[in-house]
Design a protein that fits this description.
This protein is an all-alpha fold and 137 residues long. The protein is built from 5 helices and no strands. α1 runs antiparallel to α2 and α1 packs across α4. The longest helix has 51 residues. The chain starts with a helix and ends with a helix.
Length: 137
């Protein structure tokens, strides 16, 4: 959080040209609508976060602005973690289904077919795949 606050204060100071107190209103420091647009753009670029156009006026001080950016980053990070864990959970479930399917196929093959039948089926499949690749050339 301190890193975000410091970054926001540095960006404000760059736009205004002087140091900005953490609780000083941005409008009193010389941030107008053009400065607010520059500040928003700089913060979005620095922290890789999407901010509303009115963020500099909704968060009137660098402390408020830094807290808002921190909240947005936390929300984005939480959503990324949730999506990642959902993806991992779905991947694990798919792997279990595939493993179970192959296991049941293997058990069926083992129970009903002889080794000769399996070898013939594998060779037939390999010939089929090879012919399909030759035809696609």
């Amino acid at each position: 959080m301190d890193e975000i606050q410091g970054g926001v204060r540095r960006m404000c100071a760059t736009i205004v040209g002087t140091l900005v107190e953490p609780d000083a209103p941005l409008t009193d420091c010389g941030i107008d609508s053009l400065g607010a647009a520059e500040l928003r753009s700089a913060i979005q670029h620095e922290f890789a976060v999407v901010l509303p156009v009115t963020v500099a006026f909704e968060c009137p001080t660098t402390n408020a602005l830094g807290a808002f950016v921190h909240k947005e980053l936390s929300a984005a990070r939480a959503e990324a973690i949730k999506q990642s864990s959902d993806r991992e959970r779905h991947t694990r479930a798919r792997k279990r289904i595939v493993a179970t399917s192959w296991r049941s196929i293997a058990e069926t093959i083992y129970d009903t077919l002889t080794l000769r039948d399996v070898v013939v089926a594998v060779l037939a499949y390999l010939v089929y795949v090879t012919l399909a690749r030759i035809e696609s050339l």
